[in-house]
Amino acid sequence: MSTKLSVPNPSPHLIKEAERVKQASILLGQSTNEQRCEALTEIANALNDNTDEILKANLIDLERSEKEGLNKSLLSRLQLTQTKLKECIEGVLKVSKLADPIGHRQLHRKLDETLILERVTVPLGVLGVIFESRPDALIQIASLSVRSGNAALLKGGSEARATNQEIMNSLDKGLRKTNLGVGALALLTTRQESLGLLRLDRFVNLIIPRGSNELVQFIQDNTRIPVLGHADGICHLYVDASVDIDKAISIALDSKVQYPAACNAIETLLIHESVAEIFLKKSIPIFSNAGVTLKGDTKSQVLGVKNLATDEDWSTEYLDLILSIKIVRNVDEAIAHIRKYSSRHTDAIATNEKKVAEKFLLSVDSAGVYHNCSTRFADGFRYGFGAEVGISTQTLPPRGPVGLEGLVTYRYFLRGDGDVVKDFASGERSFSHTDLPL
After folding, report:
1. The domain containing residue 299 runs over which residues?
2. N or C: which end of the chain has fewer CB within 10 A?
3. What are the two backbone dihedrals, phi and then psi, of residue 108, each rounded to the nearest 5 degrees?
């Protein structure tokens, strides 16, 4: 999505659709836990029944997108195999088994004898979700939206239009079998609608972009609606002086190769100078056999890395089998490099020294900071969230993989019996501020 595009006012049709979804969000927000769990079960059943049609539609999208020159990483995200779809359906059912995020009383306080204050979790309202290439994101976010009591306006990329429509047909079919109806989820289909969505601040409470850096940055720059997401996924692994070399190579390989198009794959490998020679001697053939192109600074080139890394490489998210390598003097230099170039997504250290690990964990300001494990673990499903709506690299919560807890807010409920402030201002009454059981 080009940053040169202007954001138009939403069309009358889009406003009408947004009003309908907003109204549906009120009903959904008042639904019971059992109703929302039942809805997810029906959605999973409908997706399962419609598997063949969804996969056929995905093949159509893949063939068309390949002819149109869609790049390899986006084609990888677009592809929806039978196994991947099955996992998505299982994910919907797992979300239904998660604890209800709505109605949690976080605070219960007696201000005075007849004045009781509560803070209770409630749905956000309406989510605006814009995503590229990944049709599985539609399933994940729709299930999390329903489970958390939120309605959603959903806009996928044109490259996945046939797949998204078949998935939406299944979502509608599932919701029709419940008391929640079909109005809570709506699929937008045009570029103008996705642009107009950015101006729907009267109806949409949160925008969740999932896609390229350009897409996320454009949305962040062109809406007054709060945005949850991250623009870059420039992740690092630092291999320390005190380390199990074979274990570190295994972590590095998984972090880069297991799924290179993912935002939690490493793009830069930092290696302590004292172990660089042995690490590279053992790892270069392994990376080569895995199809990874290595780019290195001048020190790593002396030790066998063929391609030179430029300054631009340190701030590049490859989303491909390319890895930049830099040799550093110590953990402090590694931390300084990460602070300069990291996108604050996920960064890791491989070390046997607990003090060095703790220094790294406390000094690297990323949403996820790992010790002796792959950065590919940065995922809502792997965290036990059931699924995620996305990963947030912002400082304020929610941060990291965002599941149900990131889709609720809270309200203060105050119940009284004709209480008025003047009685407290005059000193006739005083606050007790007594905490009650939650």
Report:
1. 235-377
2. C
3. -145, 110
Which tokens belong to 244? 């199990």
How far, in Å, are 260, 303, 328 from residue 267 at the CA level? 9, 19, 16
In a domain, 419, yes or no: no
Structure tokens at 352: 């046997």
Q: How many domains does the chain have?
A: 2
Determine the Cα–Cα distance for residues 188 and 334; give it in Å rounded to an integer.
44
User: Taking a C-beta distance cutoff of 8 angstroms, is the pair 40, 94 a contact?
Assistant: no
Q: What is the layout of strands, in order, in the sheet containing 235-239?
A: 307-308, 293-296, 322-328, 266-272, 235-239, 346-350, 368-371
Is residue 381's pLDDT more than 90? no
Cβ contact 269:248 at 8 Å: no
In angstroms, the CA 239 to CA 268 distance is 11
The enclosing domain of 22 has a CATH number of 3.40.605.10
CATH number at residue 345: 3.40.309.10
Residue-wise pLDDT tens digits, 117-139: 999 999 999 999 998 888 998 99
Given a cut of 90, whether residue 247 has pLDDT beyond it is yes
CB 207 within 8 A of CB 241: no
pTM across the whole model = 0.84
> What would the two tokens of residue 188 be?
């937008």
What span, in angstroms and rounded, lies between the C-alpha atoms of 258 and 400? Answer: 20
Q: Which of 15, 28, 16, 134 is nearest to 407 (CA)?
A: 28
Check whether residue 74 and residue 107 sit in a common domain.
Answer: yes
Q: How far apart are CA 235 and CA 318, in angstroms?
A: 11
Distance CA 275, CA 293 (A): 21
